[in-house]
């Protein structure tokens, strides 16, 4: 059946999942554009590429539903071709081919050249750092490594992304310079594991040296660190953070749990004592630091006593930012051999209890900001408010600063100084300080 769409040979890239997938979609789009292809992100097009997530059950469901939605559109003649790539495709390709055969072709996470070929494009090695960014113009994700060598029992990422592979510092700097030339002012460094950066290439943890190189990139004002691993964290990074104003006093370090029994079963390679000491060291060395962490509740064997210990620890540590997830029982992971013995309603209740505690902590910490002035970047306008962030907040997951747009005109992507006049659990309200 002929497509009803008049947008001939327009490729629509649909991205699901995490910031690493956003980055991969941007690289794909950059390659397509370099081959002269008409490419858009999550708009109308008669050729669709779905970049899937396969991390936990909810993400897998969303990916499968999206594939089915576009296959239906293909059957109805609204699109011509559907291609699937990314983590779900890497992990379940044989099953997907059997269950959803009407997809034109499936590709894994390392098959970009094959995907481009199927789309009538050539893979160009020389395109280091050439991407079509899909984020607001002022920030971009910068992937510094791929894959993971950690043996965490609950995690399927090594199955989908393979072993840890660091990118050379010079390639990352070239990419950062290209982003800055396009107006990007904030680089959000991402990897499955920032802590491990450089061990494979330079035989040492080299995140600090990478940061020293990136702060020299003109035009970049903020550099933010996402997804560090607690075990073996290179503390020389804290010295660079203290010394270099461009590096945000911010660290995203998923800790997952605190009970020694659970940490051991999770194969995290650390203990409650070591983790607590590490957080104390962060705060001693960089007193201004905002720490974001994520936790998992309902892991196999998590008793009420383990959960109470975690709850008390969250109260004691008073993390500035915290997210909590329920455990997802994933095939081919080490923890899949354990009995998924915490009922779903108990998992949800535990996650809600943690987030209630965190909501109160966040409210209390935000109250302390009233009357203070902060450098804020403006991300967007929504209704009657300009919405921005401080250096202590990452896009999409953290607090936002709302500024009354009826009183002040601001440009998105610009920095301004804002005085906080009111604060809620996760939002701050501010007014621009006259320069």
Summarize the structure.
The chain is α/β, with parallel strands linked by helices and 435 residues long. It is 35% helix and 22% strand.
Query: Into which percent range does the helicity of residues fall?
Result: 25-40%
| Mean residue pLDDT | 91
Q: Which strands sit side by side, in order, in the main sheet?
A: 6-9-10-11-12-13
Task: Tell me the radius of gyration.
Answer: 22 Å
**Which stretches are poorly predicted, pLDDT < 50 over at least 5 residues?**
1-6
Structural summary, described in words:
This protein has 435 residues and is an alpha/beta fold. It has helices at residues 19-34, 57-75, 87-99, 112-118, 157-161, 169-181, 199-202, 207-214, 236-243, 260-266, 272-285, 304-317, 344-367; strands at 10-15, 38-41, 47-52, 81-86, 105-106, 139-143, 145-146, 165-166, 186-190, 222-225, 247-252, 290-297, 321-326, 373-382, 385-389, 400-404, 415-423, 427-432. Strand 10, helix 9 (236-243) and strand 11 (247-252) form a beta-alpha-beta unit. The radius of gyration is 22 Å and the shape is globular. It starts with 9 loop residues before the first strand and ends with a strand.
């Amino acid at each position: 059946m002929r497509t009803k769409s008049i947008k001939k040979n327009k490729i629509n890239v649909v991205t699901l999942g995490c910031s690493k997938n956003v980055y991969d979609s941007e690289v794909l789009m950059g390659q397509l554009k370099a081959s002269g292809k008409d490419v858009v992100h999550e708009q109308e097009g008669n050729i669709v590429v779905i970049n899937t997530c396969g991390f936990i059950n909810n993400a897998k469901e969303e990916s499968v539903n999206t594939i089915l939605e576009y296959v239906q559109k293909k059957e109805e003649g609204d699109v011509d071709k559907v291609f699937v790539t990314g983590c779900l495709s890497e992990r379940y390709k044989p099953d997907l081919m059997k269950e959803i055969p009407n997809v034109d072709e499936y590709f894994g996470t390392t098959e970009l050249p094959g995907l481009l070929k199927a789309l009538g494009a050539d893979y160009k090695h020389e395109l280091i750092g050439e991407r079509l960014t899909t984020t607001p113009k002022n920030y971009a994700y910068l992937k510094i490594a791929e894959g993971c060598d950690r043996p965490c029992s609950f995690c399927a990422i090594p199955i989908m992304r393979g072993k840890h592979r660091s990118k050379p510092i010079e390639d990352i700097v070239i990419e950062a310079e290209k982003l800055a030339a396009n107006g990007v002012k904030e680089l959000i460094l991402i990897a499955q594991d920032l802590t491990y950066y450089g061990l494979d290439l330079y035989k040492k943890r080299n995140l600090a040296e990478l940061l020293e190189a990136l702060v020299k990139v003109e035009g970049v004002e903020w550099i933010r660190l996402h997804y560090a691993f607690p075990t073996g964290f290179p503390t020389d990074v804290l010295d660079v953070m203290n010394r270099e104003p461009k590096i945000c006093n911010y660290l995203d370090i998923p800790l997952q749990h605190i009970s020694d029994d659970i940490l051991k079963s999770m194969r995290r390679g650390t203990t409650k004592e070591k983790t607590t000491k590490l957080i104390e060291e962060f705060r001693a060395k960089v007193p201004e630091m905002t720490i974001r962490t994520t936790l998992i509740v309902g892991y196999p064997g998590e008793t009420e006593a383990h959960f109470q210990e975690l709850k008390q620890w969250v109260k004691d540590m008073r993390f500035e930012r915290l997210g909590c997830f329920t455990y997802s029982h994933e095939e081919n992971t080490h923890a899949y051999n354990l009995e998924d013995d915490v009922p779903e309603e108990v998992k949800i209740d535990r996650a809600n209890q943690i987030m209630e505690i965190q909501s109160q902590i966040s409210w209390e910490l935000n109250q302390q900001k009233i009357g203070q002035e902060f450098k804020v970047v403006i991300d967007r306008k929504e209704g009657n408010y300009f919405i921005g962030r401080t250096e202590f907040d990452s896009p999409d997951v953290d607090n936002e600063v709302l500024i009354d747009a009826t009183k002040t005109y601001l440009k998105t992507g610009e920095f301004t100084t804002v005085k906080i006049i009111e604060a809620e659990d996760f939002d701050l309200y501010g007014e621009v300080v006259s320069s």
